[in-house]
TrEMBL record:
<dbReference type="InterPro" id="IPR036291">
    <property type="entry name" value="NAD(P)-bd_dom_sf"/>
</dbReference>
<dbReference type="Pfam" id="PF13561">
    <property type="entry name" value="adh_short_C2"/>
</dbReference>
<dbReference type="GO" id="GO:0047936">
    <property type="term" value="F:glucose 1-dehydrogenase [NAD(P)+] activity"/>
</dbReference>
<keyword id="KW-0560">Oxidoreductase</keyword>
<dbReference type="InterPro" id="IPR002347">
    <property type="entry name" value="SDR_fam"/>
</dbReference>
<comment type="similarity">
    <text>Belongs to the short-chain dehydrogenases/reductases (SDR) family.</text>
</comment>
<protein>
    <submittedName>
        <fullName>Glucose 1-dehydrogenase</fullName>
        <ecNumber>1.1.1.47</ecNumber>
    </submittedName>
</protein>
Amino acid sequence: MKRLQDKVAIITGAGSGFGSGMARRFAAEGAKVVLADINIKRVEDEMADIGAAAIAVQADVSRKDDMEKLARTAYEAHGRIDIMVNNAGFTHRNQPLYQVDETSFDLITAVNMKALYYSSQIVVPIMEHQRGGVIINTASATALRPRKGLAWYCASKSWVVAATRAMALELADKNIRVNCICPAESDSDALGVFLAEDTAEARAELKASIPLGRFSRQEDVAEAALWLASDDASMVTGTALSIDGGYTI
């Protein structure tokens, strides 16, 4: 029996990066995945590899109506929602905190924080009716050990950790487990946003700050999320799981 056989999982930010890795891994373990991204083309490209187990939904997680549409699509297709992965995220460019413009700040709070509020309002009653479920929030290693130049992003991800713990406490008696994952940066095109100056030397210095000597990979995060979503982690809730190569030690 596959670990997520016939489970229904919603994954936001599924068109690239860690979300893409989780989508593929969950589907491989038998889950029916509903993949959301603000860029529908990216999700549709992912579906070509995942196959019939996937449904693509264009959704802006900062909009309540889009989150309602996402949950409704999943429920109407499969009759339940077992796993909610709040993975979509946004960051400002590495710069002094007083130089971050208000538009970027508002997007950080809307995507990294308020989206969890929306998804909880919509998905928790469904899970409560089902007598159980799993919520996984993507935080960041910088939530536990901030990096210079990313003040508001780090603060938003620390909020995710605190919200995860509070949610876990409140929802435990409903058999809803809530955890978050805290990965280090990945070696992707987006990595440059985390650097004050995107140079080979700056990337090497960032990598050197991780004791295991490499960035987080899609499969690292996907395997951790799979474990948290599965019954193998049935006694795990309220955890901020570091997938950071020792960065937060």
